[in-house]
Amino acid sequence: MWSIISVALYLILGPVVGGLLAGFDRKISARLQGRQGPPLLQPFYDLFKLFSKQSVVVNNVQDFLVCGFLVFIVFTGGLFFSGGDLLLVFFALTLAGIFFMMSACSANSPYSAMGAQRELMQMMAYEPMVLLTAIGFYKSTGSFAVSDIIHSSVSNIAYLPGIFIGFLFILAIKFRKSPFDLSTSHHAHQEMVKGLTTELSGNILALVELSHWYENAFLLGVVGLFIINSNWWSFLIAVPVCIIAYFMEILVDNTFPRVKWEVMLKSTWLVTLVAGVINLMILSFIK
Amino acid sequence: MGVIAFLIILPFVAAFFLAFMKQQGKMRDYFIYTCCAVIVAAVLYFAVTNLINSESRSYLLETRGLDTAILIGEFGLMGLVVYYGFHYKKYYVAFLSIAQTGLIAWLELFGKKIPEANHILSDKLTIMMCLIIGVVGCLICVYAVGYMKEYRAHHPEYRDRSAFFFAMLFVFLGAMFGLVFSNNLTWIYFFWEITSICSFLLIGYNQTQEAITNSIRALWMNLLGGLGFAVAIVYGTLVLNVADLHGLVTLGAGNEIAIIPVILLAFAGITKSAQFPFSGWLLGAMVAPTPTSALLHSATMVKAGVYLLIRLSPTFAGNLAGTMVTTIGGFTFFAASLLAISQSDGKKVLAYSTISNLGLITACAGVGMHEAVWAGVFLMMFHAVSKSLMFLSVGAVENSTGSRNIEDMHGLIVKLPGLAFVMIVGIAGMFLAPFGMLISKWAALKAFVDSNSLLLVVFLIFGSATTLFYWTKWLGKLVAVLHHSARLPNTVGKSEWFSLISQAVLMISLCLTFPLVSTYIVEPFLSDMFHQTLPAIISSGNVNIMIMMLCAIVILPIAVRFLTFGKKNKIVMSYMGGANAGDDRNFIDSFGDSKPMYLANWYMEDYFGEKIILKPAIMLAAAGLIVMMVIAIGGAV
Predict the structure, then answer these.
(1) How far is residue A12's CA from residue A14's CA, in Å, rounded to a whole number?
(2) Does residue A210 or residue B533 have the better pLDDT?
(3) How far, in Å, CA of B248 to CA of B264, rounded?
(4) pLDDT-based confidence at B364, cuts 50/70/90?
(5) What is the pLDDT of residues B288-304, one digit of tens each?
(6) What is the pLDDT of chain B when averaged over all its residues?
(7) If DSSP codes are grouped into helix, strand and coil, which group holds residue B368?
(8) Which residue of A80, A109, A111, A138 is the best one to mutate when testing the B interface, meaning the one whose CB has the most B CBs within 10 A?
């Protein structure tokens, strides 16, 4: 029963949360740069307008691939909020990511092809840490199921501080934030134009935007999972932690310039090894 | 018993006749089809009857006559290797062969009486292996019929030895059946040697300098493993008084009495399944015509190695032999998948991917735990089908377009939609979420975490990421939609299509029915082997979710077509900074001339190239292997 309600809530509130976060992001970023910034609801206005526009694309396969991206992102989030298996959730996320990448590959365009290769590089960089996160929860609670993890007596962050840090690190890649916004960026006029999404526009681009909102809501859900335990008030702590995590990502976004892929790959894998694997090692001694 | 003897003998008989059918023609084609159909039917009959009776059976306690025949056969094989060793002036090959055959012959003729045990054993794992060898192997043979005709047309420079080629394919199948049915170690060893020599002959098919060099490499590496096998047999018989595989596993499970023969057999398994440092022979095997590679990589040869390791797995739990096998396997999984990133030759990517996946199976066997072996058996099954599918489709693309380079497969979905689709199924089967290999990888990950093997967990998570990289970029090449490109004429023959489609269907149906395979074949086998029953490795809820995902992928294209019906997308050229020269294939360069655009994948030679990684990986693995073997054997003596 609870799982159905929370999935329904995710389906309805997911994009709302995602959109609000995007608006919040633009507002804060603008203030950090000494600008006024758009209204908080600007992302929603943008989305509605995009939906009403005709899509200008290079082929008709993109419809299918982008829909696949949306469907599997929603599936990922739904599975997560219904209390499903965390590994399966991450596998579904990878599948969604591959659909998105394929939409760029199918375009046969120089900029989206470059974006696709970079996106793939990003996936390779963050994948170990994502899997390690699931393993960390399993080691600490004895179950991969989200429904079991939230019923642990102590917040899992107590056992998984290193993995939490590692996850925050890769969150910058997943949120497509600088210094790791290699494959596509919120800001056009760059060497890669818009990277992955160069050849997408109009209502198809709106679907991509919507998927990202769902995805971001889900990712913050994973951040919250580190905090939530069997006490009801842990939710009250989890929400501010998610907001702070998001704020940190905005801060980092505005502070660091984009790095080369080599730097991203090396630093992400290093963080995975140092923070994640050592955390797991210690955990296997005490658990 | 009758059907077992039939399965072992029929391929040899077929090979004998094929060797004399020098003329290519309808008669030979139909002869091959018939043999394949009979083998598949026999395998299915065998599998069904044994699943209904559902018991492990063993046969043939007393086999003096057959033993003598096998001994003579071994001398024959030795003679063959010695001949080739002298012919190509590689005397060490002859030496290796004489040494091991001498050991076995000495044991049989002058050693003490060989302890009694059943020579033939059939259980659930045998059924699984038979299905893989019979069904996948025969589909490859069917494919080969059409392929070799085109191959001859494309490569008139090589002498046509296709009669010999087909004969060897069937000998290979027969040897594999013999290997999986045998329980007596000397018998297994005999069939093991046949597969080594067969692969040598098949790899050397073209008789070019490269083919000969590579085939000799395959031969000496596998003979080295065979030497380990022979020493293990002699030691087992003389010291432990056990000469059958089942007895050895029973004796060695949970203690370290049998560690010396176990580690030697594991060594043989590692050479056969092309783990680092012995990866070289499998990479070299791609000089041969595609059906050879498909057979070596999927249904036979390398599977013999991991089959032996899986059989031995209870003896690996918690000892140094297990540590050796898991470390080499885990390391190979990671290193080979890194190397695959830098390759653009389709067959080479497949070769590295085989080595990498076999590494994972090896690691699973080495953990020696119930759930790890579950994962290993499933990896073996899914890998056999999807790898054979991949090889055969790459071969078909090569015959159609003249190139097997992944870069040249750009836009294959437009040029050869059928082949591209089959290939996409194969690639998805290799690594993507609701499909086969991923299920097994998932179980493997769980098992590694449960057994507290941190090093394996690290290898697995990083190896999964690199695996994702090289498969996805291949997938990306296939789906590119190029403007103004026409379909290429479909030159793929009927027998090839039949084989490809059957395997694609097999792949998808296996993904849907794997819980049944688990319940009726793999679980009973494991509870036999480990004497305990465990709850389902992947819960039924999760299986349902996986099946939902699979259905979603199938339904999605249709649903989207309906939803977007009547939707008007404006189709434009792709963006090239406004410099398109009339289409999205050419652009205007800074001199005002039109230049063709070329989109390449990333290969990153400076980081993942063979020059950078291959040598250190082989050295490291060789050092680890030697050190662990010396410590284990030294500690036991």
Answers:
(1) 6
(2) A210
(3) 13
(4) very high
(5) 999 999 999 988 899 99
(6) 90
(7) coil
(8) A109
CB-side neighbour CA atoms (13 Å) of B385: 29
Which two three-digit tokens encode residue B476? 């990306």
Bridge partners for B400 per DSSP: none
A286 touches chain B (CB under 8 A): no
Chain B interface includes A106 (CB < 8 A): yes
Q: How far is B212 from chain A (nearest CA, A)?
A: 38
> Cα distance from A138 to chain B (closest Cα, Å)?
9
* Residue of chain A minimizing CA distance to B557: A64
Q: Tokens 């998948």 correspond to what residue?
A: B337
Asked if the interface predicted TM-score (ipTM) of this complex is over 0.90, the answer is yes
Question: Tell me, what DSSP letter sits at residue A153?
Answer: S
| Bond prior to A257 in cis (omega within 30° of 0) | no
At position A157, the amino acid (one-letter code) is: I
pLDDT in tens, A266-284: 999 999 999 999 999 999 9
Ramachandran angles phi, psi of A35, nearest 5°? -110, 165
Distance CA B39, CA B133 (A): 10
B545 and A84 Cβ atoms separated by less than 8 Å: yes
pLDDT value for B486: 77
Answer whether the bond into residue B261 is a cis peptide, omega within 30°.
no
d(CA B2, CA B10): 12
User: Is B542's CB within 8 Å of A88's CB?
Assistant: yes
Strand residues in B282-367 grouped as ranges (E): none
Compute the distance between CA of residue B637 and CA of residue B634 in angstroms, rounded to an integer. 5
CA-closest candidate to residue B129, choices B205, B182, B170, B52: B182
Show me where the domains of chain A are located.
Answer: 2-286
Q: How many CA atoms lie within 13 A of B275 on its CB side?
A: 35
Contact A127 B434 (CB under 8 A): no
From the list A60, A108, A132, the residue facing B574 with the nearest CB is A108
Residues 6+ apart with CB under 8 A from A235: A224, A228
Q: Which residues of chain A have pLDDT under 70?
A: 187-189
**Residue where the block lists tokens 């599998």:** B47
Q: Note whether A204 and A66 are within 8 A (CB).
A: yes
Nearest to B117 by CA among B11, B16, B247: B247
| B373 φ, ψ (degrees, to nearest 5) | -70, -35
Lowest-pLDDT choice from A128-132, B267-271, B455-459, B533-537: B533-537
User: CA nearest B364: which of B448, B435, B268, B457?
Assistant: B448
Type of residue numbered A142: G
> Looking at residue A188, what is its pLDDT?
60
- Residue B149, token pair as written in the block: 């005709």
- Amino acid present at B105: A
CB half-sphere exposure, B335, CA atoms < 13 A: 24
8 Å CB contact between A117 and B473: yes
Residue B250 vs residues B60, B247, B258, B501: alpha-carbon distances, Å: 19, 5, 10, 42
